[in-house]
Model the fold of this input.
Amino acid sequence: MKCAVGIDLGSTTTKAVLLDEDGRIVGRGITNSRSNYEVACAVAREEALSAARFELLRQAVEVAAGRDAHAAGAPATALQDAYRLELYLAELAELTAEIGTLLESRPMEAHRAALTPAAAEVLAEMAEGAALLFAPGAERKSDFFRDLAAAAFMHAAERVAGAGGVPFDRLAGLFDRAILNVETRLKSTDFGATLRRAAARVAAARGDGPGEAARLALLELADRVAALPIAEIAFVGTGYGRQTLPFPKEAIRSEILCHGRGAHRAYPGTRSVLDIGGQDTKAIQVDERGVVTGFQMNDRCAAGCGRYLGYIADELNLGLHELGPLALQARRAVKVNSTCTVFAGAELRERLALGQRREDILAGLHRSIMLRAMSLLARSGGVANQFTFTGGVCKNAMATRVLGELVGEHYGAGITINTDPDSIYMGALGAALFALDDARAGRPALLPAFAAPRGAAA
Amino acid sequence: MSGPATAPAAARPADPAAGVLARARHLVEDRSLSAVAAWKAAHPGALAIGYLPIYVPRPLLEAMGCLPVAVFGGGDQVDIIRGDSYFQSYICHIPRSTVELGLAGDLDALDGMIFPSICDVIRNLGGMWKLLFRGRYSAYLDLPQDFDPALGGRFYVAELTRIAAELRSRGAAPLSDGNLRRAIADENRRREALVTLDELRRSEPWRVPASEAYLVARAGGALPAPEHRDLLQEYVRAALERQVRSYDNVRVVVVGSFCEQPPLELIRTLEMAGCDIVDDDFQLGLRMIEGAVDADATDPLEALATAYLERGAATASRYIAEERKGAALVRRARDASADGVIFAAASFCDPALLDQPMLEAALADAGIPHTSLKFAENTGQFQVIREQAGAFSDAVKLWGSAA
Amino acid sequence: MSAPQAAAPTPQAAKDASQRRQKAMLADYFERLAAARENGTKVVYTFVPGNLVELIDALDMLPVLPEINALQSAMRKRSAGYIAEAEKAGHAEDVCSYVKCDIGMLKSGNTGPTGTKLPEPDLLLLSYTGCFTFMKWFELLRQEYHCPVVMLHVPYQAGGAVSGEMQRYVVDQLRQKVVPALEAVAGRRLDDGALRERLERSRQAEDDLVAVWDSARNRPSPIDAYFGGVYYIGPIFSAFRGGDGAVAYYRELRREVEDRVAHGEGPTTPDGSGAPERHRLVVEGPPNWTHFNDFWRMFSREGAVMVSSTYTRVGGLYDGGFRHDAERPLDSLAEYCLGCYTNLSLPARVDLLERDIRKYAADGFLINSVKSCNSFSAGQLLMLRELEQRTGVPGGFIESDLVDPRYFGKANIENRVQSYLQMLEARGKERTAA
Done:
């Protein structure tokens, strides 16, 4: 299979999308961004590749099941979960090794004696609990190793520290330093070997299943899929240019163009796109071919970005994901005037002190952000049918509702609004489409082969 | 430390000023200018002309049968979308809400707008108005920065003549010396009523809270001068009837808010924090000329212009050549027996903020305590301001300084 | 209008003769400033828009332009410190960074861009032209220097034209206020002939300058009319208009530009020749001074050439045919002041930009909106919309500041610029494909 690769290096997450030569999406991957951009890109790409292979596997399994009801048998999801578990365990092993190295270092001399067994206990608990994380139907707050490992580590560390002897902070500090090194280290995953281990795990778990034949059939499929050549024929990268993106210049496209193109691919009828991210907000106008005709950015002011909500969540001691649902329960929208995040906190406190309901205030705050977004849209040329809402904030049901109301009020009732849970991939999708263009025009850039694994980051 | 003394609800006498205050408030909050529309219906063919802060000589407009309508933006009640789409984040709020009101049709009762030379934002807003509302009258009034009658005075008369001609061509009644003298006389009477109000504020601030003085002054924005004079006099009479105890707050002058208006709540917050605002520049436009203009002048237009040159109030948008910058403010503070000055500037307001260091220096030399804060017309929280004003009034009371 | 490629283009290392001359003129000027007190030469501070250099020079006085001091401080990376000083002294964050930079420089010893102390003013010529902040600036300086101030109120061209009354007001002020104030400081009467000579020289220089601007109609444009343009207006705007130096400079510059046209060369950029011309842009708004070359490179490296700009007209608009006129000294000085770009109405500015977009066959236009300058910035978003509607040409919008480095977010600006240029590229392809 030949595919075009698009990578979007965001401030929080890095995404990759693979398209086949006909432009069909064959794989998507996402990982948390980190200080080493190259590693972030490599991981995202790996994720996308493995997603692509899993899709191929799923198709192969379906075909096989069609031929023989007892063949293979293991649903691809179980295999994918097991695969993820294997990856997690592999990274956990790296983390363990890294912690070991840290403990051996000179600054740790004083605490080594106490810390070593404590750390070992924590890590052991993590290894034990790993399988549960990836059990069928398990709900995980995140798929990123950093998040899962941190949660598991801290949970275990609290218990271990509580049991006596070692201060929690010291254990936590170990994790913080180790994870930095682990996740900024370039490594390659052997898809085939990992998949085999995963397949073995799944087969072993199926005690009363179809038996040895099925197990072998699955392993054989896994091998076949792992061996499938997936050639990357073109690459385009995009992302927020805080620092230089680790791609050759010819391979970079602006995130605005990629985002507009991606949104248009997902919704060919869309002409206006609003992306509210954590750090910035973009209003983009595209034509019938997905070419950007105008855009405006708010990249200077927190009001109107996801950060505003984060700030509010902190003030109220809530999780970000709780704001929307709470706001939806408002009985009346309190008019919040402060458009500046600096004053929003003060205004929030004052209103709470006056006895106003949290839900009502939140409703007002949501309206405040969306007014900023509407203003940016107006600046960029308005809202044309269809209108697509993307970015982290689009997952907030209150934000979406208010936006719908405002669009209806100001641009008429006939505007279709698309909100897409997969909108986080739009930039990478657009990038991949540009890559495909390049390939077809005979000018493809290729994903750089990132340097061999480096030493531990400082 | 607030307004009229409160007795138990059942026994509390009705406030004699309640009625006039309610009318004033209604006028001030009349964002879609229903009162203006009513006036126009009652005066078919006459023009209602809006103007931005600070000052446009209202008698000129009234002499031509027009109703001058002071426009102060949308305050804190307008959701701004389109208005914001035209302005970057580092520009004050009043042009946003004014554009929003304009685009929403709230200003449709106006037959035109005059933009006086106060700063570059309002100046450019006038140009924007021409592009946004083609065909509607939009004029700039370039107030003179030279105060020589033969130079700036002559230019100013030419400006006023030009505006009069433009209004005439749009259907206003012709400007005659007779009309203008009458209008000037009306304005003088309104001015007197304002003086009476201001003097009462200064002598008995417990009888005339600043927030109320604000409402009754601002209510005149869309009234002919005689009606406003009546309203002011009614309020003063009512205030004098009030049964109130005097109390001892710190006396302050508030300056810097001559264009974008603070929310009423902000004024109240300052009062509740222990400051009696005995003088301010919120409604500077109505008080721009000190004293009466000669209503019997052979050339009343000349008289109007000369009054501006010679007795126009010192403010940030006026070039001060003859004396030290800030001397006028020191005089004002002393005249009002003020204990201190509060600088309340709208965020991003170039005139107020650029002036402030010079004014502060003058106050410091005169030993007058001061503090400063910023606001926007749609500021929604006042806790910080309350604390700051409270600390200021406490410090002044205790130590006679802001230290 | 392109010419056939000639042999080798000019080597990048060698500076143009005009650049060398300008450098020499500036060095000489600062030396004279440094020696002013000693020599008893009087010094007049004034502003770039509405600067009356011919009058000042005719009375053998030296002009100082605080705006130029501020931008020079920024280019030498000193503005951040000066601004901090001013803010410590109580100046608000919201106000113009030119003023704060100047106040800060004053409080830090008033050392000018070349390292020598600037002489204090004998007179503040407050040419109140196109910018409200100017009034406050000189009110502030008056308090610092305790010297005389003379106000020249240049009325705003709100109606899109200069009326007889406006003209008369300025001429009368010149005759009755400004010239007497200058004479009082100079200690002698203004010699009419001296003034006329200088006005005539100004006219000559202006003819050549306009020819330089017009050269941008060529493909490729031999000049960058924004980044490069800033260097071209130096002599005209600062201390040299009306002098022989300016005449020589512009004659030389014009020849150099004509030479580049003949060879089909594009403008010189910080990196030498820059990439081949791909995009032709008209720019509205002042440049950023703290990151001037970085900002320039965002364009020059992509082959984006500025074919016209409005900032280069703040100190005088000559494209429409206006010239200083020895036959009508005070009248033409008044016309000059009234015609400076920032004194034009918003509709007139839009018309001017529209004209330039068509005249120079621009593919796009860019607005650099600076936080400090409300005169330029208030209303630019409406201008953006109007121009897009009228010309069909896409507008880019970026935000920065004059001399406060805190407001130049390099990554953000690069993002916007690259996105805009790529958008132009994509639209260009789309039009070709259609």
Notes: Residues 69-73, 451-458 of chain A have pLDDT under 50 and may be disordered. The longest strand of chain A covers residues 231-239. The CA atoms of residues 116 and 341 of chain A lie 44 Å apart. The interface with chain C takes residues 240-243, 253-257, 280, 287, 289, 291-297, 299-300, 379, 381 of chain A (CB under 8 Å).
